[in-house]
Structure prediction request, 872 residues.
Amino acid sequence: MKEYYQMSRTEAQKAVNGSTHPLSEDQIKKNQQKYGPNALVEEKKKSILQIFLEQYKDFLVIILIAAAIVSGLLGETESAIVILVVITMNAILGTVQTIKAEQSLDSLKAMSAPEAKVFRNGDVIKVPSSEVTIGDIVMLEAGDYVPADGRILENASLKVDESALTGESLGVDKTEEEISGEVPLGDRTNMVYSGSFVSYGRGSFLVTAIGMETEVGKIAKLLKNTSEKKTPLQMNLDNFGRKLSILILVFCAILFGISVFRGESMGDAFLFAVALAVAAIPEALSSIVTIVLSFGTQKMAKEHAIVRKLQAVEGLGSVSIICSDKTGTLTQNKMTVEYYYVDGKEIAAENIDLDDKQQKQLLRHSILCNDSTNKNGEEIGDPTETALINQGDKLGVPAEAVRTKYPRFSEVPFDSDRKLMSTLHTLKRGSTMVTKGAVDVLLGRVTMIQKNGKAEPITQQDIQDIEAQNQKFSKNGLRVLAFAYKDVPEGSTLTVEDEKDMTFLGLIAMMDPPREESKDAVAECIKAGIKPIMITGDHKVTAAAIAKRIGILKDESEACEGAVIENMTDEELKDFVEGISVYARVSPEHKIRIVRAWQEKGNIVSMTGDGVNDAPALKQADIGVAMGITGTEVSKDAASMILTDDNFATIVKAVENGRNVYRNIKSAIQFLLSGNFAGILAVLYASIANLPVPFAPVHLLFINLLTDSLPAIALGLEPHTKSVMNEKPRPMNESILTKNFLSKIGIEGLVIGVMTMIGFYIGYSGFGHENVLLASTLAFGTLCTSRLVHGFNCKSDEPVLFTKRFFNNKYLVGAFGIGILLITAVMMVPWLHSIFQVQTLSLAQLFIMYGLALANLPIIQFIKWIRKKIGK
Prediction:
């Protein structure tokens, strides 16, 4: 069966209603029962309680809950409370984010027109849009939202803004004639679609689809069937939690075995092993990550990027593919005059010379034969017409002054069939009709051409030259208007019949130019190992021209239209996407398939967009980025991040921020794990060497709550560097716990552990007699202070000692200062001794503790220097 756009109006009416007559009351009721209401159907949502409980499914969270229970049983009530408070806060945060993310369909529903004008029982009446049914005839005029999909029956210069649905920036001129062959959605000019907006003219259409069967409804289905992707950080932390838990459980099992071997009861050995597991798990990690990401969102907000989902901050840092819309993101979303063509010469806009009479005449005619206005920066009218009067403003010729001097006496408005517009003015030469329109149409109606200020008969060579120039402009993605004029009798009223035997004046070529910063941003992407891809609803020629200018497209073979991938299998598409940088005339399904194909090739994909048609792909992408200025609410709700300046360059800044945030989070994890590993090694060594346990449970609690959290958060706020953009994106499946990362944690933990046990030995037998309390005090103090010092080691993989970078993090310096004051107070203030199970240290013992802790700094910095030299 033919599609409705391929049928004539009569065929379409018979296919839908069985006749050309409007629906009767009985047919309306039957159709409403058969097809249901004209509304988007929403699936049952999860309750807030369900969403909240789902936050506890994380493996590390489950381990922490078990640890909290065991801590409570062991009498460590404070530790249990801290763990439970931390994971509950994270669950609440996750619940709030999830609820906010479930608003895409609500925004789609809000797009539907509240009322529709339908032809029933011989009259045009208003009905709620939900009551519009298949077969209804709906009347449209400028300012109306289209309530359903349908085939146009009558058309009087109807122009519809379909940008939210197709992504095409300019309004679409509609026709009632059938279209032969298969064409993409944006080229079905005899159809209108739900959610689009009538910007000019009037007409009527036959409803062919309502509710979930409309194009907007299909997008709603795609949104429901598209699951949001976990960011690399979420996947990494899940993976990290499982691996860390297994590692800790292995260590605890070894300690349990040693304790039993030494003759301890199985009960005591088991409780000690579990207590150590509680101490070893960095329960503050999820809070630290949340805080670091929150600071990242604040920094990005200042740079015009509002983050809706915290993990997206880091996720952007992992992006290897950025699929971007063209209009408004890579371009200025403002039609601008690029060239004049007058008297056989091509003149760039910046070189227009008003001392040349023909150039000045063309400018004047483009302002007069024009309905747009620009008052106090508020532009009203068609974007191409607005571009013409803005060019006048740039050249110091305001439209208002020209129109006041040469008022309009008559006009023949533009319509999509003629593709012409004419106005009548009294110029210096007398009563003159000024006409503008499509080049091919106007050339068929001119008999003269103006050369050197004089009109002479147009030759075949002249026509060929004009056509060649038009073709050149079009190949470069420019929109071209032709201008002509004709002398008419004084007092005439213009009609369509006057639009013949005119004199050709010139061409004006316009385009929506690239943003100034787009070219640099694209180059930055490529340098950072990210492939930028343009996906647009615009025409291939226009898209390719812009993509070439900003560096996305190198060769024409890298551009294609959506129709090319229509019949490809997913496997074929996976191979195909590798060689394509520009996709034009694409549908929402195409966008999702392109994004998914790159994801299946192991890439982290970011997708930008502003329309309803972009929403499913924004949700499918690992990081969806919506436009804040031109974006629809649907696209914003589906996205992880919103650009308040609609600028591609802001995405590149966000990638840089994301990479820095991930590096800082990794530094915080390195700090936590190397310190925890040092504590485990100290306990493990003491067990093997048959020494007393070096730490009391309260020591571990103090370390976890005070000397761990502040430096870890401070490391997460380490100043950002641009050097991250010289690195390639990390692989999608790369774990945080890489071999290299684990070796760093192991070596650094070993150094800190050795210093801790040296402190233990000095206290245990270094002052003439065995003193278990002094040994435990020195071990605890050395481990605490070592971890504070170790914060400076974790700033970078490279040595930072004796560099400006050593003190450039005020938060880390502050955390170190607070930590030193706290641990010193514990050691020196007598009333704290019983609480923290320590004894007073002499000044010499205090300096031994400080000295052992500080020794970690040059040793670990030297190890970093060696690792850098050997390239590991």
